[in-house]
Design goal:
The protein has 14 helices and 15 strands. The protein has helices at residues 2-17, 30-36, 58-75, 87-98, 124-128, 145-155, 173-182, 195-199, 236-247, 253-266, 269-291, 315-324, 352-356, 361-378; strands spanning 19-20, 47-48, 51-52, 79-81, 104-108, 130-134, 159-163, 186-190, 212-216, 227-231, 295-296, 305-309, 327-328, 330-332, 346-350. Helix 8 links the parallel strand 8 and strand 9. Helix 11 runs parallel beside helix 14 (361-378).
């Protein structure tokens, strides 16, 4: 135990002393961490509130019901399931609820900004389903909605996925909804990265247009690590069965309680102000990089992140050099990247974590200047 205690202190110091620009990371409140580390971690609760496979679930039933109602209120959805352990599990549950093995999915390619679960060849999504990918326009590096419509008409997918892991522009869910309806497809909006922006009205909501919505709770939502799956009422039973017993066993009740605490925080004015600052910080930092002569993919950002194009195959080296200086980013493929995902041409930069720690526009501009000096001095290209 002493070893773990020492490692916890070591990791806390690393977090405190680093400038964290990982777009998918954030810092939870102390209230969330207390609940996640509570006695709720001791309770097994397979099933749903009121329909458990274990006794002694009266209290955790209330916990899950509370978290579920908060999720429905935040996003304005008809049904929510707070049990998924991750965004990947949430996506897998939707696939199981909506598709049969071999059905066609139309989703964003990884090099354009899509996620592993959107059809990467080594992910189960690609192993079980026929995946057709759409991308971005080569000139604007924004989603080519005409291409999406053409591919949908040609391949007649059963499900279209609108969402991304490294895409800095607003996603037009309304257009995706029209395309899906035109070919009789269901629409899944994966808002894992932008959930906090959607929850506060700073990004178009997919709710009027999508049949299913998935999210993570630990990125812009600033909650514990976990997933969230939502849908129209007509798919509620299928989705719940797909989560458990379809893809998971016992839910993590301590994490679900942490989600509830985070959801309560989402409903505050302070959280909305925080999200506004996240977006403003990202735009200020991206603009500073452009001013410094760097190429920002698509020319800027509408959300909490952006990509820097550093040249063919130097993303891994840049990530390593910046970490040596206490700046944490992740290497990332960029659209039409000729390099491998393990050694791509770009890095992804996000502002949620350091905004939580109080950074504002001028702080992010200073960090951009620092990054520019490090990368220029080290002559990565």
């Amino acid at each position: 135990m002493k070893t773990i205690d020492m490692l916890l202190v070591k990791e806390r110091l690393r977090q405190d002393r680093s400038v964290n620009l990982i777009a998918s990371e954030n810092y939870t409140s102390d209230a969330v961490m207390r609940v996640v580390g509570s006695c709720l971690t001791n309770k097994y609760a397979e099933g749903r509130p009121g329909r458990r496979f274990y006794a002694g679930c009266e209290v955790v039933d209330e916990v899950e019901a509370h978290a579920t109602e908060l999720a429905k209120k935040i996003f304005g959805v008809e049904h929510a399931n707070v049990q998924p352990h991750s965004g990947s599990n949430a996506n897998l549950a939707v696939f199981l609820a909506a598709l049969k093995q071999g059905d066609t999915i139309l989703s964003m390619s990884m090099d354009a900004g899509g996620h592993l679960t959107h059809g990467y060849k080594k992910n189960i999504s690609s192993m079980l389903f026929n995946v057709v990918s759409y991308g971005v326009d080569k000139k604007t590096e924004c989603i080519d909605y005409d291409e999406v419509a053409q591919l949908a008409k040609l391949h007649k997918p059963k499900l279209i996925v609108a969402g991304a892991s490294s895409y800095s522009r607003e996603i037009d869910f309304a257009v995706f909804g029209v395309i899906a309806k035109s070919v009789g497809a269901l629409l899944l909006a994966d808002i894992a990265h932008i959930a906090g922006l959607v929850a506060t009205g700073l990004h178009q909501s997919p709710v009027p247009h999508a049949d299913f919505i998935t999210a993570t709770t630990h990125k812009t939502l600033r909650g514990p690590r976990g997933g969230l799956a939502m849908c129209r009422a007509e798919f509620a039973s299928a989705l719940d069965r797909a989560v458990m017993p379809g893809t998971q066993g016992g839910p993590l009740m301590n994490v679900i309680a942490g989600k509830a605490v985070a959801f309560e925080e989402v409903l505050t004015n302070e959280f909305r102000d925080y999200q506004k600052q996240v977006v403003s910080n990202a735009r200020a930092m991206a603009n500073k990089f452009v001013e410094l002569g760097f190429r920002v993919v698509s020319g800027g950002t509408d959300n909490h992140m952006f990509l820097l194009d550093l040249g063919v195959g130097v993303g891994k080296e840049a990530e390593k050099k910046l970490e040596q200086h206490g700046i944490i980013v992740n290497r990332n493929v960029i659209p039409f990247d000729s390099s491998s995902p393990m050694n791509p041409s770009g890095i992804r930069i996000g502002t949620p974590a350091m905004t939580t720690r109080g950074f504002v526009e001028k702080d992010f501009e200073c960090v951009a200047e620092r990054i520019a000096r490090i990368l220029t001095l080290d002559k990565l290209t």
